[in-house]
Structures are given as C-alpha cells and as structure tokens.
User: Fold these one by one.
Assistant:
Number 1:
Amino acid sequence: MHTSQSSIYENGKVNGILGIVRDVTERKKAEEKLKESEEKYRKLFESAQDGILIINTETGRITDANPFIEKLLGYNKNEFVGKQIFEISPFKDIVPNKNKFKELQRKKYVRYSHLPLETKKGKKISVEFISNVYPIDHSLVIQANIRDITEQKKAEEKLKQYQNTLENTIKKRTQELSNKLIELKVSQKKYQTLFISSQDALMTLAPPTWKFTAGNPATVKMFNCKDEKQFISLGPWQVSPKKQPDGQLSSVKAKKMIEKAMKEGSNFFEWTHKRYKGEDFPVTVLLNRILINGDTFLQATVRDITEQKLNESQIQEQIEELKELDQLKTQFLSFVSHELRTPLTPIRSQLQRLLGKKCKPQEQQGSLQMILRNTVRLDKLINDVLEISRLESKRMQIFKRSVNLKNLIKNTITTMQPLAEDKNVKISTLFKRVPPTISLDEDRIKQVLINLIDNAIKHSKTKEIAISAKRTNHHVTICVEDQGKGISEKERKHLFELFYVGKESKYLTKGAGLGLPISKGIVNLHGGKIWIKTKIKKGTTFCFTLPIKNSGQTNKQK
C-alpha cells in the first residue's frame, strides 16, 4: 500500500488532516517485471556476439556500447559514449551516414548488408550494420547491431568464384559437347556413306539376339536377298550351312565368335556362309565392337574368298603334281638304269659270243633269236616311256573314227593268239547288244586291249581267259577276265600308278609297270573309265567303258 497525508487549514489554522491510501500492487509487479526485463536485456547486451551501440534519437550521440564492440573494432566503451557515430574513426569516412541517420529517424530502420570498416589496428573487415528504433523509459533510442561477416563474405566470394568457375566450365563443356555432337553427326554421315558405298559386305548385329540390324547393298547382293529388309530378318546361323567345315554346328560356333569379338574388341576368322536359298561359299569375317548412339553393336566385314580358295586349291594341286613329278623323275631314273639296261645285257653278251668265236649255224640262230627278243622288248619299253611322256605332258593325240568294235576285238585276239598258244591258253568272247560301230581311235583302243589280254594270258592259272563287250545305257563296257591268283587290296590301289609292278606280275613277267597307266590315259581321253575287280585265288577282271556317240566323224583330241 502507498499512503500520503496533508493538513487541512481553515482561517489559518489546522482544521484537520487528509489521508490518502493507494493500492500499488500492480505497479510494484510491473516495476519488478521491468527490472527483470532490464536485467535480462542487460545480460543479453553484455554477452552478445554482435557489437551493439545505443544511440539517442534526438542528438544522435552514443549512450552505451557493449563489450563485444571493443573486441570487434578495438575501441573501448569510453571512446564511443557521448559521440555521434560518424565522428568515430571506423565510420567517419562513410559519407552516407548523416543521410542514413536522417533516414533512420524517419523510417526507424536502416541496414547495410556489406559495410567495409577498419579496426583501430587497421584491419579491414566487412560488417552487417542493422539499426532499429524502439522505446525505452518513455523515450526512443536507436540500437545498432554490428556483425562481423568477413568470413561469410569471403565464403560468399569464394562461392561466387566457384559459381563463376562452374558456369565457365559448364559453358566450356557445353560447347565441347556441342562440337562433339557436330563431329558425331559428321562422323555418322561419313560412316553411313562408307557403309553404303563399300564394295565389301558390311552388316551390323545387335545384342541380345545377335540378329542383323543393317546390311549394305554389297551384303544384299552377296547373299542373294531381295532387299535389306529381307536380310535383317535373319541371323548369322540362318545364312550358314548347318555345320562348318570343322564339324561344329554353325549356331554354336557363331555365338563363340561373337563372344570373342565382344570380349576382345575384334575377331577375324574364316567362315562358310550360304546364299539365301542357294549354295555355300567361303568367306573371311572381321567382327569389330562399335558404339552407335551409346549402344554397343558388332560390325561384320565379310569378303567372299571363293576365287582365293580356288586358287589355293589349284596351287595345292600344282604342288602335289610337282611332288608326283619329282617322284616320277626318281622312279624314271631308277627305271632307266635298270629296265632299259636289262635287255641290253643279253644282247651284248650274245654279240660278244658271235664275234668272239666261230659258232655253229644252230648256235648262231639261237643267239640271233635272243638278240631279237630283247631288241623287241627294248623297243616296247622305249615306246611305253614315250607314251607316258605324251600322257603326262598332255600331248597324246587320239584320232576318232567310226569303228566296228566286234571286229576290233577279234583282230586283237588274232594278234595275241601266238602268245596264247605258247601258254596253252584259250580265249573266249561274249558280245551283248554291241552297236555296229563306235567312234574311237582304233590303234589306241587296240593298244589297251593288247595290254589287258597280255596281262591276262601271263597271269591265268587255268587255260582260258574271257573277253566280253556289252552295251549299258550310253556306254559299251569291255572286260578281260583271267583265272589267276588275284591281286591283294594293298596292290590294287597302286596298279594304275607309273612304274608300279605287283608281286605276282613281277614274279611272272618282270614287267616295267607302264602298261596299265598308259591304258588308263587312253581310256580317259576317250571319255571312259577303267577299273579292276579281283578276288584272291579266283582271278582278276579289268573293265573299261567307251561312250557311244555319233559315228562317221573323225575327231582329233589333245
């Protein structure tokens, strides 16, 4: 409670006392709250991490400064209090301050976002300066908060620098990307041009099915497809035979080749393809892993090597022929040194005998007969060698004319009859549907018949050989059959080779091994073929065919 009293005068005399009693409870509470608020404010003021100045709104002079302002600017409280803010060294060079102060008085708020200040020690700092006007004790004051934002500004400047760098980098990378896109478009255009115009078959394959996705005109032509659309509906194994030359399934091997190319970047190999509804053909394939618009593909470059393979085959055949010729040369030298010398030895021996002493007429006759036999043998050997030479050099000629085959066979038998009689061998004949005449070289076919009949007479164990001729379709087949010991499978494979003489033939006749190769060559030149049928201990049959053509014409073949 609050009491007050005063005297009451009347006519100059105290007449009474006036007492007043007031209830000040609420005021006391308000005063306590105000005191508490001021204490809290003071604590905040004293402990704040911003510099704070309290300024009189009327005079513009500083009435208070918190401790942090000294830490911030290096000036103590006494250097601030009683002065106007623009009189203090850090602020005195800020020209707009007086105007800003007037603006503050009018608007009750002023803010500097980046105010450059200098401390008492000359350090340059950047601060945020915020001033507000608010009432204290029924009067208005200005509170100026000064916050050091030097590090923040540095961070902002660094961030701005980073942003500028980033923007420049983005611009640079964008330009580079743009240039790359232009280059890519140019490259794609060039690739497309090369792809279409290439003479090689080019095609692309895409995972996971690995079917064709594109094929240039050369590809469409190579595989005999109607157009590119038809080609790309297929897979590599669908334009290949079921199996490759090495026996692997095309579908399995194709996947292996693709996997290798994807793993190593490329793969080069030979392959056998198949034209669309057509024949097989050999190729080389180069698979390359490529990127198109960010997607992985395989590009196949395929070259038809049919001609190359043909050339390789021809070269290999020539190599084999050269090897064979080299072997024949060796055999021929051996043959010359042995077979041609063999008949000369008895000739020389008999001549020396005739010249060395007087011989009786009977002895002279025997020597001359021996000389004649060996001279004939030598002549036959030389003729056979010449025939082989003509066959091997493709110079043997045949002269065809219309000939009665039956008469030719009978005449040949007549020629061989003395030899057959010497061996007590009878020759039988059998003719079936033989045409009246056939176009052939009479002398050459007679030579074949003589060779075969001569062998049959010499090898037959019994006293008969059989000669037959019959028509089969467009050929006449002629066979000479003996009843000899037969020929083994091993020897049979070599009978038509030059200078080969089987055991039985060598044992009985000491032949030179030229008759059968010559016979084969002659039959081949006539367009026929020759073969042998034999069974051990049952005999051997040699057969050959002659084609039936229009007779009556003379034909010369080389």
Number 2:
Amino acid sequence: MAVLKKVGVLSVAKMAGIISAVLGLIYGLFMAGIGVLLLFTEPILGILWITSIIWAPIGYGIMGFLFGALYAWMYNILAKRIGGIEFEFTK
C-alpha cells in the first residue's frame, strides 16, 4: 500500500486553475447563448451576458488556482498529522 504524503502546491494549483478555466469557458458559452437571446429584449443585459465568455474562464481559472493551492497546502499539513491518502497499485 502506497501513501501520498505530500503534493506539490504549485502543481496542484496549476492543474486546478486550468480545469476550472475550462469549466468557466463552458459556463461562459452557455451564458453567452442566453445573452444572445437577451439582445432582443434588453440589449445592455445581453451584451453583459455575452462578455461572460471572456470573464468566466478568467475568474474561474483564478479562483481554481487559488483554491487548488489552498487545498494542496491544507492536505500537506493534514497528511503530516493524520497520514496521507492510501493507494493500492496492481501490476
């Protein structure tokens, strides 16, 4: 049984940031679609919603990076005290 004792904070943060940015892009595309529909009734709101295709991935990416770093840092502290995650590998 292998135990994960420590994770790289920066590597986890980068991975979480990229994954979150991709999810933000999906969310931004969905919101931009709603924005196109809003253009017919409320042009200003429609434009704001369409810009979510730009701001959502950026915001999600930044927050994913920060929370990924926080979770990795917390994991490292807790793994020292209570033990890490156990893995079982097969050949």
